[in-house]
Amino acid sequence: MEFFLVGQTATGKHELAVEIAEKLNCEIISIDSMKVYKDLDIGTCKPSSEERSRIAHHLIDVTTPDDQFNVGRFIETALAVSKQIASSGKNILYTGGTFLYYKALVYGFNQGFQSDESIRKRLEHEYEADPAKVFSGLKQIDIKTAEKLHLNDKKRIVRALEFFELTGKPSSDYKTHFQRDVSEVNVVALVKDLVKLEQNIRDRIVRMVREGLVEEAKSANNNYKLSKEVKGSIGYKESLELLDGKLTTDELVEAVFIRTRRFARKQMTWVRSLKELKIIDLTDKSKSDIINLVYTLWT
User: Fold this and answer.
1) Which of 16, 108, 152, 198 can bridge 176 by disulfide, Cβ–Cβ 3.0-4.6 Å?
2) What global pTM score does this model have?
3) CA distances to 14, 183, 280 from 288, in Å
4) Which CATH number fits domain 2-108+177-298: 3.40.50.300, 2.120.10.30, 3.40.50.620, 3.90.78.10?
Protein backbone atom coordinates (compact mmCIF):
# COMPACT_ATOMS: atom_id res chain seq x y z
CA MET A 1 0.00 0.00 0.00
CA GLU A 2 0.95 3.63 -0.44
CA PHE A 3 0.54 6.40 2.13
CA PHE A 4 1.22 10.14 1.93
CA LEU A 5 2.18 12.35 4.89
CA VAL A 6 2.44 15.95 3.72
CA GLY A 7 2.05 19.37 5.29
CA GLN A 8 3.65 22.64 6.28
CA THR A 9 7.32 23.19 6.91
CA ALA A 10 8.58 23.02 10.53
CA THR A 11 5.74 20.76 11.70
CA GLY A 12 8.02 17.82 12.46
CA LYS A 13 6.68 15.72 9.57
CA HIS A 14 9.74 13.59 9.17
CA GLU A 15 10.12 12.56 12.80
CA LEU A 16 6.48 11.49 12.75
CA ALA A 17 6.94 9.76 9.40
CA VAL A 18 9.68 7.52 10.78
CA GLU A 19 7.46 6.42 13.68
CA ILE A 20 4.51 5.78 11.37
CA ALA A 21 6.63 3.95 8.81
CA GLU A 22 7.77 1.54 11.51
CA LYS A 23 4.16 0.84 12.50
CA LEU A 24 3.01 0.26 8.92
CA ASN A 25 6.06 -1.63 7.58
CA CYS A 26 6.96 1.16 5.15
CA GLU A 27 10.00 2.52 3.41
CA ILE A 28 10.05 6.31 2.98
CA ILE A 29 10.17 8.22 -0.29
CA SER A 30 10.94 11.89 0.27
CA ILE A 31 8.73 14.47 -1.47
CA ASP A 32 11.18 17.35 -1.09
CA SER A 33 12.77 19.33 -3.91
CA MET A 34 15.89 20.18 -1.87
CA LYS A 35 16.66 16.94 -0.02
CA VAL A 36 17.65 15.42 -3.37
CA TYR A 37 20.96 17.34 -3.23
CA LYS A 38 24.09 15.86 -1.71
CA ASP A 39 26.18 17.99 0.69
CA LEU A 40 23.20 20.19 1.60
CA ASP A 41 22.18 18.65 4.90
CA ILE A 42 21.69 21.40 7.48
CA GLY A 43 19.67 23.78 5.35
CA THR A 44 17.40 21.02 4.03
CA CYS A 45 16.79 19.38 7.43
CA LYS A 46 17.59 15.90 6.19
CA PRO A 47 16.76 12.91 8.39
CA SER A 48 19.46 11.92 10.84
CA SER A 49 21.67 8.87 10.41
CA GLU A 50 19.75 7.27 13.28
CA GLU A 51 16.43 7.81 11.46
CA ARG A 52 17.87 6.44 8.23
CA SER A 53 19.15 3.37 10.04
CA ARG A 54 15.64 2.69 11.37
CA ILE A 55 13.82 3.12 8.06
CA ALA A 56 15.10 2.97 4.48
CA HIS A 57 14.86 6.41 2.82
CA HIS A 58 14.74 7.20 -0.89
CA LEU A 59 14.98 10.34 -3.08
CA ILE A 60 17.56 11.83 -0.70
CA ASP A 61 21.13 12.62 -1.87
CA VAL A 62 20.41 11.51 -5.44
CA THR A 63 22.20 14.34 -7.24
CA THR A 64 24.71 17.16 -6.73
CA PRO A 65 24.06 20.88 -6.12
CA ASP A 66 25.18 21.81 -9.63
CA ASP A 67 22.30 19.82 -11.14
CA GLN A 68 18.93 21.26 -12.18
CA PHE A 69 16.57 18.71 -10.69
CA ASN A 70 12.91 19.01 -11.68
CA VAL A 71 9.49 17.44 -11.24
CA GLY A 72 9.85 15.26 -14.33
CA ARG A 73 12.98 13.57 -12.99
CA PHE A 74 11.39 13.27 -9.57
CA ILE A 75 8.41 11.39 -10.99
CA GLU A 76 10.56 9.02 -13.03
CA THR A 77 12.82 8.24 -10.06
CA ALA A 78 9.98 7.93 -7.55
CA LEU A 79 8.04 5.53 -9.80
CA ALA A 80 11.09 3.30 -10.26
CA VAL A 81 11.81 3.25 -6.53
CA SER A 82 8.19 2.59 -5.60
CA LYS A 83 8.14 -0.49 -7.84
CA GLN A 84 11.27 -1.82 -6.12
CA ILE A 85 9.78 -1.26 -2.66
CA ALA A 86 6.47 -2.88 -3.62
CA SER A 87 8.27 -5.92 -5.04
CA SER A 88 10.00 -6.40 -1.68
CA GLY A 89 6.62 -6.72 0.03
CA LYS A 90 6.84 -3.46 1.96
CA ASN A 91 4.48 -0.49 1.98
CA ILE A 92 5.46 3.01 0.86
CA LEU A 93 5.23 6.23 2.83
CA TYR A 94 5.73 9.38 0.79
CA THR A 95 6.48 12.37 2.98
CA GLY A 96 7.47 16.00 2.48
CA GLY A 97 6.23 19.47 1.74
CA THR A 98 6.84 20.00 -2.00
CA PHE A 99 3.21 19.99 -3.09
CA LEU A 100 4.08 20.30 -6.79
CA TYR A 101 5.72 16.87 -6.49
CA TYR A 102 2.82 15.49 -4.45
CA LYS A 103 0.25 16.64 -6.99
CA ALA A 104 2.24 15.16 -9.86
CA LEU A 105 2.41 11.83 -8.02
CA VAL A 106 -1.31 11.70 -7.29
CA TYR A 107 -3.01 13.51 -10.16
CA GLY A 108 -0.65 12.55 -12.94
CA PHE A 109 2.27 14.47 -14.33
CA ASN A 110 0.32 16.71 -16.70
CA GLN A 111 -2.05 18.00 -14.04
CA GLY A 112 0.86 18.22 -11.64
CA PHE A 113 2.60 20.86 -13.75
CA GLN A 114 2.26 24.23 -12.06
CA SER A 115 3.61 27.54 -13.28
CA ASP A 116 6.66 28.97 -11.50
CA GLU A 117 6.25 32.74 -11.35
CA SER A 118 9.97 33.54 -11.04
CA ILE A 119 10.87 31.40 -14.08
CA ARG A 120 7.96 32.76 -16.10
CA LYS A 121 8.86 36.40 -15.36
CA ARG A 122 12.51 35.81 -16.29
CA LEU A 123 11.49 34.20 -19.59
CA GLU A 124 9.05 37.02 -20.31
CA HIS A 125 11.83 39.56 -19.71
CA GLU A 126 14.16 37.63 -22.04
CA TYR A 127 11.43 37.48 -24.70
CA GLU A 128 10.75 41.21 -24.48
CA ALA A 129 14.47 41.92 -24.86
CA ASP A 130 14.92 39.65 -27.91
CA PRO A 131 11.88 37.68 -29.19
CA ALA A 132 13.77 36.09 -32.08
CA LYS A 133 16.53 34.76 -29.82
CA VAL A 134 14.05 33.26 -27.36
CA PHE A 135 12.00 31.70 -30.17
CA SER A 136 15.17 30.25 -31.64
CA GLY A 137 15.94 28.72 -28.23
CA LEU A 138 12.52 27.04 -28.20
CA LYS A 139 13.18 25.56 -31.66
CA GLN A 140 16.35 23.93 -30.34
CA ILE A 141 14.61 22.13 -27.48
CA ASP A 142 11.06 21.64 -28.80
CA ILE A 143 10.84 22.02 -32.58
CA LYS A 144 7.37 20.39 -32.73
CA THR A 145 5.85 23.05 -30.49
CA ALA A 146 7.80 25.87 -32.14
CA GLU A 147 6.48 24.88 -35.57
CA LYS A 148 2.92 25.41 -34.31
CA LEU A 149 3.63 28.91 -32.95
CA HIS A 150 4.23 32.35 -34.40
CA LEU A 151 7.17 34.48 -33.30
CA ASN A 152 4.71 36.97 -31.76
CA ASP A 153 2.93 34.35 -29.60
CA LYS A 154 4.72 35.40 -26.44
CA LYS A 155 2.43 33.58 -24.00
CA ARG A 156 2.72 30.11 -25.56
CA ILE A 157 6.45 30.46 -26.30
CA VAL A 158 7.15 31.38 -22.68
CA ARG A 159 4.86 28.60 -21.46
CA ALA A 160 6.66 25.96 -23.54
CA LEU A 161 10.07 27.12 -22.31
CA GLU A 162 8.84 27.21 -18.72
CA PHE A 163 7.50 23.66 -19.06
CA PHE A 164 10.90 22.47 -20.31
CA GLU A 165 12.77 24.16 -17.46
CA LEU A 166 10.46 22.66 -14.83
CA THR A 167 10.20 19.15 -16.26
CA GLY A 168 13.26 18.63 -18.43
CA LYS A 169 10.94 17.50 -21.24
CA PRO A 170 9.52 19.23 -24.34
CA SER A 171 5.79 19.79 -23.99
CA SER A 172 5.20 18.26 -27.42
CA ASP A 173 6.51 14.89 -26.22
CA TYR A 174 4.61 15.03 -22.98
CA LYS A 175 2.32 12.21 -21.93
CA THR A 176 0.65 11.77 -18.57
CA HIS A 177 2.33 8.81 -16.86
CA PHE A 178 -0.54 7.84 -14.61
CA GLN A 179 -3.32 9.15 -12.45
CA ARG A 180 -4.49 7.66 -9.20
CA ASP A 181 -8.09 7.43 -8.06
CA VAL A 182 -7.92 10.41 -5.69
CA SER A 183 -10.78 9.09 -3.56
CA GLU A 184 -8.66 6.07 -2.65
CA VAL A 185 -5.44 7.93 -1.77
CA ASN A 186 -4.33 7.56 1.86
CA VAL A 187 -3.10 11.07 2.55
CA VAL A 188 -2.80 13.14 5.71
CA ALA A 189 -1.72 16.79 5.85
CA LEU A 190 -0.15 18.16 9.01
CA VAL A 191 -0.78 21.84 9.73
CA LYS A 192 -0.32 24.17 12.66
CA ASP A 193 -1.62 27.56 13.77
CA LEU A 194 0.66 30.03 11.99
CA VAL A 195 1.48 32.03 15.13
CA LYS A 196 2.75 28.90 16.88
CA LEU A 197 4.39 27.65 13.70
CA GLU A 198 6.33 30.90 13.42
CA GLN A 199 8.17 30.14 16.65
CA ASN A 200 9.06 26.68 15.35
CA ILE A 201 10.37 28.29 12.17
CA ARG A 202 12.50 30.87 13.99
CA ASP A 203 13.91 28.29 16.40
CA ARG A 204 14.83 26.00 13.53
CA ILE A 205 16.61 28.77 11.62
CA VAL A 206 18.66 29.76 14.68
CA ARG A 207 19.59 26.11 15.19
CA MET A 208 20.61 25.69 11.54
CA VAL A 209 22.86 28.75 11.70
CA ARG A 210 24.40 27.48 14.94
CA GLU A 211 25.00 24.05 13.39
CA GLY A 212 26.83 25.52 10.38
CA LEU A 213 24.39 26.56 7.66
CA VAL A 214 26.64 29.32 6.35
CA GLU A 215 29.71 27.09 6.37
CA GLU A 216 27.74 24.44 4.47
CA ALA A 217 26.73 27.00 1.84
CA LYS A 218 30.34 28.19 1.53
CA SER A 219 31.62 24.64 1.04
CA ALA A 220 28.97 23.85 -1.58
CA ASN A 221 29.70 27.09 -3.42
CA ASN A 222 33.42 26.29 -3.44
CA ASN A 223 32.95 22.71 -4.63
CA TYR A 224 30.17 23.12 -7.19
CA LYS A 225 28.86 25.57 -9.75
CA LEU A 226 25.55 25.81 -7.92
CA SER A 227 22.37 25.44 -9.93
CA LYS A 228 19.90 28.30 -9.92
CA GLU A 229 17.53 26.15 -7.83
CA VAL A 230 20.13 25.85 -5.07
CA LYS A 231 21.43 29.42 -5.30
CA GLY A 232 17.90 30.77 -4.95
CA SER A 233 16.68 28.37 -2.28
CA ILE A 234 15.63 29.39 1.21
CA GLY A 235 18.61 29.55 3.54
CA TYR A 236 21.32 29.09 0.94
CA LYS A 237 20.54 32.31 -0.96
CA GLU A 238 20.80 34.29 2.28
CA SER A 239 23.94 32.44 3.37
CA LEU A 240 25.65 33.31 0.09
CA GLU A 241 24.60 36.94 0.56
CA LEU A 242 26.15 36.91 4.05
CA LEU A 243 29.38 35.50 2.60
CA ASP A 244 29.34 38.36 0.05
CA GLY A 245 29.03 40.86 2.91
CA LYS A 246 25.46 41.83 2.02
CA LEU A 247 23.86 40.54 5.24
CA THR A 248 24.74 40.20 8.90
CA THR A 249 23.90 37.01 10.78
CA ASP A 250 20.86 38.66 12.39
CA GLU A 251 19.67 39.91 8.99
CA LEU A 252 20.13 36.42 7.56
CA VAL A 253 17.95 34.90 10.28
CA GLU A 254 15.23 37.47 9.66
CA ALA A 255 15.36 37.12 5.88
CA VAL A 256 15.15 33.32 6.05
CA PHE A 257 12.32 33.58 8.58
CA ILE A 258 10.28 35.85 6.29
CA ARG A 259 10.75 33.57 3.27
CA THR A 260 9.98 30.41 5.27
CA ARG A 261 6.83 31.93 6.74
CA ARG A 262 5.71 32.90 3.25
CA PHE A 263 6.44 29.35 2.09
CA ALA A 264 4.35 27.92 4.97
CA ARG A 265 1.43 30.11 3.91
CA LYS A 266 1.78 28.93 0.32
CA GLN A 267 1.76 25.33 1.54
CA MET A 268 -1.45 26.06 3.45
CA THR A 269 -3.00 27.32 0.21
CA TRP A 270 -2.14 23.97 -1.36
CA VAL A 271 -3.67 22.12 1.60
CA ARG A 272 -6.95 24.02 1.25
CA SER A 273 -7.10 23.38 -2.50
CA LEU A 274 -6.63 19.60 -2.36
CA LYS A 275 -9.92 18.14 -1.20
CA GLU A 276 -8.63 14.58 -0.71
CA LEU A 277 -6.36 15.61 2.19
CA LYS A 278 -7.32 14.57 5.70
CA ILE A 279 -6.07 17.50 7.75
CA ILE A 280 -4.64 17.13 11.24
CA ASP A 281 -4.04 20.33 13.19
CA LEU A 282 -1.00 19.70 15.38
CA THR A 283 -1.79 22.55 17.75
CA ASP A 284 -1.90 21.27 21.35
CA LYS A 285 -1.46 17.62 20.29
CA SER A 286 1.29 15.33 21.54
CA LYS A 287 3.37 13.21 19.18
CA SER A 288 1.61 10.05 20.34
CA ASP A 289 -1.79 11.69 19.75
CA ILE A 290 -0.83 12.52 16.16
CA ILE A 291 0.61 9.09 15.43
CA ASN A 292 -2.51 7.41 16.79
CA LEU A 293 -4.74 9.68 14.69
CA VAL A 294 -2.83 8.89 11.51
CA TYR A 295 -2.71 5.19 12.30
CA THR A 296 -6.48 5.15 12.90
CA LEU A 297 -7.12 6.85 9.57
CA TRP A 298 -4.96 4.37 7.68
CA THR A 299 -5.87 1.05 9.27
Assistant:
1) 108
2) 0.80
3) 14, 27, 13
4) 3.40.50.300
